Amino acid sequence: MTDLGAGSGPGIAMARGAEAIGVEARAAGGRGGGVGGVGDAGGEMASSRGVAALAVRSVTVVGLGAVGGSVAKGVRARLPGVRVDGIDPDPASARRAEEDGVRIAPRLEAVDVKEGVIVFAAPLDTAARLIRETAPHWESAALATDVASLKAPVMEAAAVARRGRNDTGPDRHPGPFVGAHPMCGTERSGYEAARADLFEGAVLWLCGGKAAEDARELAVRFWSALGARPRWTSPERHDRRMAWASHLPQLLATALAATLEDAGVERTDLGPGGRDMTRLAASSPEVWLPLIAGAAAEDARALRAIEGRLARLRAAVEGARRRELVKLIEEGRRWVEGTD
After folding, report:
1. Beta bridge partners of 59
2. For position 340, what pLDDT does the model report?
3. Of 245, 216, 201, 217, nearest to 21 (Cα)?
4. Residue 161 placed within a domain
5. CA dihedral for 327, 274, 311, 239, sign (positive or negative)
6. What is the pLDDT of residues 199-230, one digit of tens each?
7. Which has the closest alpha carbon to 159: 150, 149, 169?
8. Are 223 and 281 contained in the same domain?
9. Domain range for residue 266?
10. Are residues 22 and 150 in the same domain?
11. Are 299 and 157 in contact (CB under 8 A)?
12. How many Å is the Cα radius of gyration of the chain?
């Protein structure tokens, strides 16, 4: 049975730094190809040839939160004639989606997914569980994909499920699962935060795993049709970079907001810069706890690095070391100017 649990709307994923993830040097559907090194800011975009020829019977979205709801709205807006099915435990989100033309189903197994696309848009731990539990059903789809911002746990769940839910033995024939992570989102949650144009222009990372070539090509066409810019990467390289590009900004925003509260600073006291820096603090704990647990070692490494920077800044301020303070500020400014 498809049980999404609570909090099915994934929170924000920071886009800055996305293009620094190493990518497979091949177009979607191509064979072989190595993975570029971390810090290779270019890489080839996955080929989106044949977007106009995208032909699927249906798109089923498992989890109608901000991101999953945006998939549903995007398909409705951009792919007329494609049936959209949705599954969500929150009656309010399901009702709003149904009002927008989404067919609500009680569970994935109740939906005919043949020649269709399935998008798992629940929080990471729930998505991984559902991928394992519903493999006999999603294997009949043309494409199964997800939106989780860590890829190794999801790809492992798909691989284990396809090995017969055990940890030994080879995979069977290539399957339809292609992991995906769109570098866009919102700190808000729920279907009411969904937008049909959420993916427009956003980098979207794809992990092919053991997917069939047809599924790889369809993943590129599908996400391109929603406005995203797909790129290929490995799960390990993706997750290592996300600890810095997504998790660290989230954790810093959380700490900054709590520190301001401790100091008696109201949010209305902040200017645009302060509001921008604390916006992520509104993200859902239910979404972030499994993500942080899944990348705990690299997240801790990132936090130690920022603690070192903060210690240098504090020492420069306390010691009135103007030259050191200028140096630290200039280092940050150079990074911003070099990546905009």
Report:
1. 84, 117
2. 55
3. 245
4. yes
5. negative
6. 999 999 999 988 899 999 999 999 999 999 99
7. 169
8. no
9. 240-339
10. yes
11. no
12. 21
Percent helix / strand / coil, the chain, rounded to 5: 50, 10, 40
Closest CA to 207 of 135, 159, 138, 137: 159
pTM of the entire predicted model: 0.78
Give one DSSP letter per residue of 185-228, joined into a string.
--S--SGGG--TTTTTT-EEEEE-TTB-HHHHHHHHHHHHHTT-
Give the count of domains, the chain: 2
- pLDDT tens figures, 39-91: 332 334 565 444 445 789 999 999 999 999 999 999 999 999 999 999 999 99
Rounded Cα distance, 244 and 230, in Å: 20
Distance CA 325, CA 329 (A): 6
Please check whether residue 13 is in contact with residue 149, taking contact to mean a CB–CB distance below 8 angstroms.
yes
Cα separation of 317 and 304, whole Å? 20
DSSP assignment of 267-298 equals GGG--HHHHHHHGGGGS-HHHHHHHHHHTHHH
* Tokens 């907001």 sit on residue: 257
* Model confidence pLDDT, tens digit, residues 241-251: 999 999 999 99
Q: Which one of 216, 234, 252 terminates a domain? A: 234
Is there a single domain that holds both residue 228 and residue 244? no
Q: Among the three residues 217, 234, 251, which one is the final residue of a domain in this structure?
A: 234
Q: Same domain for 173 and 121?
A: yes
